[in-house]
Amino acid sequence: MKRIFITGALLTLIFNNAKAQDDKSEIDSSYYKNRKLKVEEVNFVTGYYTQNGNNSAVTGGIGSEHLTDVATSIDLKLHKKNKRNNIHSFNFELGVDVYSSASSDKIDPTTISSASMGDVRVYPSASYNYNNVESNYNVGGGLSFSKEFDYTSYGSFLNYSKASKDNNREISLKFNVFFDTWKVILPLELRPPGYGSGSENDKNLVDNKPRNSYNLSSSFSQVINKNIQLSFLMDLGYQEGLLGTSFQRVYFDNGMERIEKLPSTRIKLPAGLRANIFLSDNIVLRTFYRYYTDSWKVNANTISIEPVYKISAFTSFGLLLRIHHQNQAEYFKPISQHSKTDEFYTSDFDLSTFDSNLIVANARFSAPNDGVLGLKKINTVELRYGFYHRVTGLSSHIITLLLKFK
Amino acid sequence: MPFAIISCTSVKEYQKSKINDVDMALTTKKSEKNETNFILYREASSGANGGKTGGGCGCN
Fold first, then answer.
1. How many other CB atoms are there within 10 angstroms of residue A301's CB atom?
2. pLDDT at residue B48 greater than cutoff 70
């Protein structure tokens, strides 16, 4: 009921605002020519990700973390100008992830295809934005859905931004909600009698638990001069429900085994600063810093620097370096170190103390007039390769291809 | 940083050829989407970078 009410309220607010502006336009500017809905751009993004490590949370903080993921998404952006040249934009996206995980196969070691060993995640979304050119503001909202074997997510958002008359500064707000449900899949040896495996072929049922997320994002951006602009970003996030992962094992110092247990609420407070600088005629420096803290006592600092060398306005090469340090959640301990008196416990190394580095090489080719490689419809081709390393031993490779059609 | 804000100047639209360059955008690029997504799963901190902060399992 709550999710229907919030979603309905968000959409009503957006569409009423846009309609009111259009009604005004019809009265005041009936002599202007109406415009048709046009395709602004289509983006196709596909990527391959693979990781290796030896701290799988499914097996209590030891064991293979090998995982592969092929993620592909396509989005379509449409826009229409009204009689006052204000812009209605519609965005539709469909994403599909196909992944396999060695550790998930250890949920039930007696089978070779237990729940979630290999899975497909499908996530469509739709959004609408109204840009009032006269008053320099945007208002919009959207809906999203995500479905994989054991996890279903419904999301919606509302956004508003207002720019100054000279377009040199802008404030924006975005409110996101996600209402998620996941199957409580337990490791084989910890299932009570009659408790299911989560498999579609299993007649025994499993529990379903909610996880809800609420997030308010704000940003303030400022053009400093002809070569520099920056933005301050701050989020406030709140999560409630099942925040632990039910098939992740924890082994205690007395040999006891349980499933991971984490608090049912979490408050997140990240704040960031992004500054982009045109250093010379052909070098752009993109920088980002973020401080993060949350109610589980995780603190983190992240910094990234990306010099981009521009051969022309349409071709550039970039090299991104990202350094991250985080302090562990107060509930994390490695295998066999938790005490039976601990109220909450996890051996998930994603919640541990670590330093990590990411390096990404990026090439972008655009040809707005002739099309890339003479193919007129292809406006931009972008190729990225990234290598990620965490001091815990986890490392990964990611390659991404973007094609933009106009 | 306060110094930078104090020293900002009013930039006219016709002076924004560099500010409006695609590599100067103050948002994450569309092609960074997959990287943002895996980092969201592999690190406990998230947010304040335009990425999502909820929704999806991320349990693998």
1. 14
2. no
Number of domains forming the structure of chain A: 1
For chain A, positions 57-96, list CB contacts with chain B under 8 A: 67, 69, 71, 73
Burial class (CB in 10 A: 0-12, 13-18, 19+), A51: buried
- Domain for residue A198, yes or no? yes
Q: What are phi and psi of A104, to 5 degrees?
A: -65, -25
The band of A366, judged by pLDDT with boundaries at 50, 70 and 90, is: very high
User: Is A50 inside a domain boundary?
Assistant: yes
Q: Which residues span the domain enclosing A59?
A: 37-405
CATH code, A328: 2.40.160.40
Share of chain A above pLDDT 70, in %: 90
Q: Scanning every residue of chain B, which has its alpha carbon at the shortest distance from the alpha carbon of A400?
A: B31
Across the range A278-298, mean pLDDT stands at: 96
CA distance A217 to A150: 28
Q: Does B31 touch chain A (CB under 8 A)?
A: yes
Candidates A43, A168, A326; nearest CB to B11: A168
Q: Tell me how far CA of residue A193 lies from CA of A107, A247, B20, in angstroms.
A: 16, 17, 63
Q: Are strands A257-259 and A249-251 parallel, antiparallel or unpaired?
A: antiparallel
- A290–B49 CB contact, under 8 Å: yes
- Examine residue A21 and state whether it is found in any structural domain, yes or no: no
Contact A231 B26 (CB under 8 A): yes
Q: What is the mean pLDDT of residues A64-87?
A: 93
Residue A76 inside a domain? The answer is yes
**Helix (H, G, I), strand (E, B), or coil: what is residue B43?**
coil
Distance from CA of B2 to the nearest CA of A (A): 11
- Check CB contact under 8 Å for A221 and B26: yes
- Under 8 Å between Cβ of A156 and A141: yes
C-alpha distances in angstroms, A404 versus A73, A91, A313?
12, 14, 16
DSSP string, A120-189: EEEEEEEEEEEEETTTTEEEEEEEEEEEETTEEEEEEEEEEEEE-TTSSEEEEEEEEEEEEEEE----GG
Q: Which residues of B touch A396 (CB under 8 A)?
A: 38, 42
Give me the total of CB pairs closer than 8 Å, taking one residue from chain A and one from chain B.
210
- Taking CA–CA distances from A314, the nearest residue in chain B reads B22
Q: Tell whether A44 is within 8 A of chain B (Cβ).
A: no
Span A212-237, pLDDT tens digits: 999 999 999 999 999 999 999 999 99
